[in-house]
Specification:
The chain is an alpha/beta fold. Helices cover 56% and strands 9% of the residues. The protein binds guanosine-5'-diphosphate.
Length: 441
Amino acid sequence: MFNNLGDRFKDIFKKVSGQGKLTENNMKDALREVRLALLEADVNYSVAKNFVAKIREKALGEQVISGVNPTQQFIKIVNDELVEVLGGSNVSIAKADKNPTIVMLSGLQGAGKTTFSGKLAKHLKSKGEKPFLIGADVYRPAAKKQLKVLGEQVKVPVFTIDESTDAVEIVKQGIEASKNEHATYVIIDTAGRLHIDEQLMNELQDIKDSFNPNEILLVVDGMTGQDAVNVAKEFNEQLDITGVVLTKLDGDTRGGAALSVKEVAGKPIKFISEGEKLDDIAPFHPDRLASRILGMGDVVSLVEKAQEAIDEKEAKKMEEKFRKNQFDFEDFLKQFKMIRKMGSIAGIMKMIPGVDTSMIDMGMAEKEMKKVEAIIFSMTVQERRDPKLLKNGSRKMRIAKGSGVQVNDVNKLIKQFEQMKQMMKMFNSGGIPGLGGGFMK
Ligand code: GDP
């Protein structure tokens, strides 16, 4: 998503570069191209028009800042405007004063509502909450079953009444049942239709009136572009939703929906979903998406991912080992696993600004990692715990054979490992100021 728009912006920035100062005249072409780029990305017409008007106003009104060139200033203005149009800042999911917080999900059939119920449950669980799912999609035949399967996968209780088509009754009993489980969040999967119709809206309105949800999220299919935006507008007018979930942003969507929803429908995007897997959910951060569009990478979400992947307790233990210089190959292997949890190398690299992933052979990087892993796997536990044993040539030969590499590769890994330990020793002895401890955090 957004690759094209990002490329277009890069081209526009290139054309602006070299200008001494931003003027009405030299901005004209750039602004026209910004507008075209937005329209090509399927951004709503009046959103695109406003966007350009605001950039123009800011660019011409801006004082020249010393130490910054006009292109950089222009990029900053575009970035800020993108953040603005995407909603400004992250609006997190509501949390009621009293448990459980009730989250009602709505949306058209196929938007990804049921899948999102499972994703949200998993997400909330990872934040230490106790979610509880209620299957009240009484319209799509397989929806209740699908929710039960998802519930099992994420180990979250699911309540539904198979034979009932009375959504309000299901939710009523479900909320009661959630109290026995001491749930902190109740997520209600409601029915969708292929199109917005009166019956659907009445049903949703009934649930809303009966239970007064803390959060009414509308799930829309990002691939449907401006249709998604119109659906959001209409749902909001009829149901006064609290936020939008934009799904399927992994597909080849041009991204226009994300850029138009807030302004057209008036409600913030709270989550985006970029895949069918249960982990493919992320709270929506306008600033991060803006920097992703402009190709500046997304370090913040990289760090967040790392934080999620790294087990705090394990990290503390590892740090202690570093401090005492007891770090061995078993720990090394554990570190590898943590990195793996963050996703593929390619995925991680893409998020780092300034890294041109087309220049890196990702296949090679993955292969190198696998090779190192294979070598360590071929060591005995004793060898892993006491790397000194590896000075022995026949041991190295055995390991090389076992992992299908050259002895040279084993030597290289041992050498790198020793260098790393040396470095840690230096940090810990205060050899390099400001780097003592904390390495793993
Ligand atoms: P519902 O009718 O709104 O409950 O829709 P479902 O949750 O059953 O989803 C419809 C289809 O979209 C399913 O095949 C999902 O696997 C798929 N889907 C849901 N979210 C995403 C997403 O973010 N990306 C992709 N590629 N597919 C998704």
